[in-house]
Amino acid sequence: PDVDLAPVSKKGLAHPARPGAGTVGKKVMIRANHFLVNVADNNLFHYDVSINPESKSRAVNREVLSELIKLHGKTSLGGKLPAYDGRKSLYTAGSLPFESEEFSVTLVDPEKKDKEKAEREYKITIRIAGRTDLYHLQQFLKGRQRDMPQETIQVLDVVLRESPSWNYVTVSRSFFSTTFGHRGDIGEGLECWRGYYQSLRPTQMGLSLNIDISATSFFKPVTVVQFVLEFLNLRDTSRPLTDRDRVKIKKALRGVRVETNHQEDQIRRYKITGITPVPMSQLIFPVDERGTRMSVVQYFMQRYKYNLQYTSWPCLQSGSDARPVYLPMEACKIVEGQRYSKKLNDKQVTNILRATCQRPQQREQSIREMVLHNKYAEDKFAQEFGINVCSDLVSVPARVLPPPMLRYHDSGKEKTCAPSVGQWNMINKKMINGGIIDNWACVSFSRMRPEEVHRFCCDLIQMCNMTGMSVNPRPLVDNRSASPNHIENALRDVYRRTTEMLGKQGHEKQLQLLIVILPEVSGSYGMHVSSGQSPSTFSWISVDLCVCRV
User: How far is CA 367 from CA 32, 83, 156, 361, 487, in A?
Assistant: First the structure.
């Protein structure tokens, strides 16, 4: 685009003046996923907030502040509707009627049966931290001031995030909800939710709200038994879980909140801390102060008249190791709205991309619908601070640049080639200055026979030489085949052998190209090669890495 949409640097540097707009290519008008923002000339006030007892949960902090506004908003807060970042900062349009004040509120946990334990008192201290106005932001946007007023933009950004923070699941700068469309099953007990990314940015056009659609993975709100069946791809529920399966479930469910379903009149929520090492049928614990011991199966039958079925499976564990709470998997359901933050496998990534991939026109329409759904014009926090968000995408001038001309050798003569829609044909063409590779090697983690690996390498080298490269037809060392379970050892062996060979030849050069043939199983590229599972192994690879599936 001929207009910069990227955020302007907040450092007070004198950037070189732009010499002018582009002149090459075809002029076009494009729409960008930016929405212009106008702000009324208000005085913005920043207050520090401290809550005692302190909570790391933004949701709890927001509940505390919400209760405070409900009780004291019209009186002690002077009718102001503050915007809260969920941590330490509170912002208002206009000042509060005090510089420092302490409040007390009580929250009741409806899930706890004991009323005394359900009530918790919080002390909130609000203290003035500073004030700002929009003058410096306006001067900055007009180019009359170098320093970007970051705090002013942060205030406005927090204001525009206040309502969605209450209504949707927040993940960094994105918001997700099942109201944004169909939740797609991506496999192994997970589903993808649609949402949107939102960020307030200063641009040459003025303040702009950047919005884009997004998607991420969540736990399905199903019983833990159903999750385990899907996660481990099990069919026979009568057999015990192996130690390997138990470790997998423990890693997947640690920190996940579940709610019990064995008492119709009372739902309790717990956070999973682990998995018991023995099956439920063998799990015995003390049930009273006299030391009476009982199995989990007996306890549920005697206390709740609940006949447990999956007795060969372990229990979920909540609480601490000193005072554990044992929860049968079949009596627990995963609480909705919990994001799965661990690495997805290849199949899950493919499913989530398939569910969210859209053509430009569809994506634009989805963004429009998202903006209309958010109803910024009716947002009470935006109204409080005098913020108005335009409902139309901005149109900016741009140019379609011509593709670069490519030069090749064709039938012994140098010719040019014009790419079309990013593609061109290299048949019977050679590169003018092809690369030179003297030292290369190959390691295979696939089930290919040695002669098949040799044939593949020969065909690859032959094709390289045909297109104008100069590649030694023989590898520096013999091709190595290894199990995918011993990738690190295999790469260390290749490094050792190639270093010794080059040393014997009196060369100080390193290996130039390493060809890695992956196994047929899915997920190996992301697990072992792309992520660099062992940095110590890959630190020596200053060579080009060719990763192939054959």
Answer: 11, 25, 21, 10, 44
Tokens of 234: 């099990």
Amino acid identity of residue 243, one-letter, is: D
- The CA–CA distances, whole Å, from 150 to 134, 147, 265, 387, 431 equal 11, 9, 51, 17, 50
- Angle (CA) 541-543-544 rounded to 5° is 120
> Could you give all domains of the chain from N- to C-terminal order, each with its CATH number?
1-9+24-40+152-219+346-402 (3.30.530.60), 43-133 (no CATH), 224-334 (2.170.260.10), 403-430 (no CATH), 434-548 (3.40.50.2300)
The predicted-structure confidence for 225-279, as pLDDT tens digits, reads as follows: 999 999 998 888 888 888 899 999 999 999 999 998 887 777 788 999 999 888 8
Q: What is the dihedral of CA 336, 340, 344, 348, to 10 degrees?
A: 10
- What's the DSSP call for residue 405? P
Q: Is the pLDDT of residue 470 over 90?
A: yes
Burial (Cβ within 10 Å: 0-12, 13-18, ≥19) of residue 74: exposed
Interval 70-93: pLDDT, tens: 988 888 898 999 999 989 999 999
Report the distance separating Cα 389 and Cα 160, nearest Å: 10
76: tokens are 């002690």
Per-chain mean pLDDT for the chain = 85
